[in-house]
Design brief:
With about 170 residues, the chain is mostly helical. It has one domain: dinb family like domain (Four Helix Bundle (Hemerythrin (Met), subunit A), Up-down Bundle). β1 and β2 form a beta hairpin. The longest helix has 23 residues. The radius of gyration is 16 Å and the shape is globular.
Length: about 170
């Protein structure tokens, strides 16, 4: 079982996400997240998924696209660090990703298929990383991070957004 990262394996805003993950296998958490996200988004029509709870907020389709895009970025960081690449990795502009993706033109079904493919790839990567690589560190977004921390960031980031979806989108 991949254990929770120690306090010296992450910093900055990443701790907010890591702290949302329960004390359990991160693979179990990712599977629970996948089931919950799929159940939540699959019941939406394309029209419902274009809903924004405020004019300047992302639509539900954009949130789902953001989850997949961010998981791709975080998995790439995890891979690089696990493989011993210490080249500093830059941050990314999530709003630029949203504005250039045109998720609104896609269907919920297509976005969910993409999300599921990304999750399958992430799980495969996590299972392939040798034990000694999990505590290797690198720099991402000007923050020193371990490979292990990124597995937890992926899970916690998704928990964060699923909570927002339930509280601000589906309750509206």
């Amino acid at each position: 079982m991949l254990s929770r990262p120690a306090a010296d394996e992450f910093g900055g805003h990443f701790g907010t996400y890591i702290n949302l993950v329960a004390d359990r296998s991160v693979l179990e958490q990712l599977e629970d997240n996948r089931r919950n996200a799929t159940a939540l988004f699959a019941k939406l029509t394309d029209e419902e998924a274009n809903f924004r709870y405020a004019p300047d907020k992302w639509s539900l389709k954009e949130v789902l696209g953001h989850l997949a895009d961010t998981e791709r970025v975080m998995s790439y960081r995890m891979l690089r660090i696990a493989r011993g690449d210490t080249t500093p990795l830059p941050g990314f502009d999530q709003d630029s990703y949203i504005s250039n993706a045109d998720f609104t033109a896609s269907t919920v079904e297509r976005l969910l298929a993409d999300y599921e493919a990304v999750r399958a790839s992430t799980v495969s990567l996590i299972r392939s990383i040798p034990a000694e690589a999990w505590t290797r560190k690198g720099t991402a977004s000007n923050t020193e991070m371990s490979a292990r921390a990124f597995a937890y960031v992926i899970a916690g980031h998704e928990l964060h957004h699923l909570s927002i979806v339930r509280d601000r989108y589906l309750s509206a």
